[in-house]
Amino acid sequence: MNVRSVAVIGAGPAGAAAADALAKEQRFETVRVFDRRSLAGGTWVYTPDASLKIPDLRDLLEGNADSPVPVPSKLPAETPKCDAVNNQEVRYADTALHEHLHGNHVPSLFGGIAEPRGDGPGAPFKHREVVREWIEGVFVHNKLQKFLELNTTVERAEKKGSKWVLTLRKELGQRNYWWEEKFDALIVASGHYNVPWMPKIDGLVEYDAEFPGRILHAKHFRDGSRYHGKRVIVVGGSVSAYEIIGEVLPYAQQPVYASLRGDPDPAFGWKPWKDPHITVKKQITRLDSKSGRIYFEDDTYLDDVDHVIFGTGYTFSLPFLPVVQERIKHAYRRIPGIWQHTWNIDDPTLALIGMLNGGFTFRVYEWQAVAVARFFAGRSKPLPPVEEQREWERKRVAALRGGKAYYSIAPHHAEFFELLRDIAGKPGPGMPGRPFPSFDKAWADVWTGKVAENVQGWEQARKRSREGMDCKVRAKL
């Protein structure tokens, strides 16, 4: 493998880790990091003026959201702006951050790419803007800004011969400017928090059409005060659902309803739901667009609901990468053809970083980035035979099918970290590159403590909410 030029799509935490690892190999003549936003930070760039709605719910449920845009036949080119290309809502370009979001990342698990700053005692989790600044700091402190090409959207990435050909677009006033650049290898670090995932529920599309604004996904949630006096159902059993309930609880009509398909995320358990102002319901089975009534699995129902907020996660979408997007459309919430969530099996000059879940966010991106950079530099161990990689995927699909369970590295954190470290190997004497240590069991203790801190924080927030509501009641009396 003779890789001299590498493109990175995305300037969020995964893209920052990739840029740093590639630079430290001192092997590549060209490294370019493209991001459609005006700031580094990826999904941590707050978009307060988002449209706050899904552009077409039927398209989303049928897997047709976030489609590729038409590209000029001859490049370079200039074209007028149009909604299909430039509308942020249609392109799912708004980020999934609400006003008061704090990242559930612990500074000691950030790894070596940044120097995290504290917010004082008792603040293990950082406000969204602090996290974004950390990510931007990777580029600034490590002198990687020269790699950045912001306000630039990668509209197509296709392998032609031995090169990855990227079709790029930048807005210039009322026009779009398009051009191409070619690379030996490609890293996709664009994240997986762009396109919402919502369950297919009888009557959902019709209900949304009849009552516009009632159906909302967590991606478009911004502030709990917007739900003052409203009757709210929050759907989902993981972090985003917990956080949204905590945000709306001081304002919404009591109780707030939590609709769960089964048990909540085992990492957090039932503690966040144990509140006198929260009523837990079974999963929603039907929405009646004529009466507005919402039915649950246990045959109970609710009337006069103002908002149903789905904290049900996201699905993968890579519309700029046709060869992979076609695979995604025929699979259940996973990216087929990828070994160990990182390397494209058919052509390992394509790698993915950050398309996984299950803990140690940011640090695991760094481990992936170093392994990929050393592989592209020709300094790593070879990847296993293709058939062995396919067998890994076959077994995982058979056991887990897809969804969060498939792309989660939990509870096998140590095995995943050590696999990446083994492939990367150590830099030889006098050779560039970043060594990285063995998996430290203490990290698992820190991660477990993070979960406890999260639950404790939610409980404290609920307590403050109850005290505030009690004060309001006494004031009325």
TrEMBL record:
Name of this chain's protein: FAD/NAD(P)-binding domain-containing protein
SUPFAM superfamilies linked: FAD/NAD(P)-binding domain (SSF51905)
One Pfam family of this chain: FMO-like
Family: Belongs to the FMO family.
Cross-referenced Gene3D superfamilies: FAD/NAD(P)-binding domain
One GO MF term attached to the UniProt entry: NADP binding
Keyword Oxidoreductase part of the UniProt annotation: yes
UniProt keyword annotations, A-Z: FAD, Flavoprotein, NADP, Oxidoreductase
Species for this entry: Cytospora chrysosperma (Cytospora canker fungus)
InterPro entries in the cross-refs: FAD/NAD-bd_sf, Flavin_mOase, Flavin_mOase-like, FMO-like
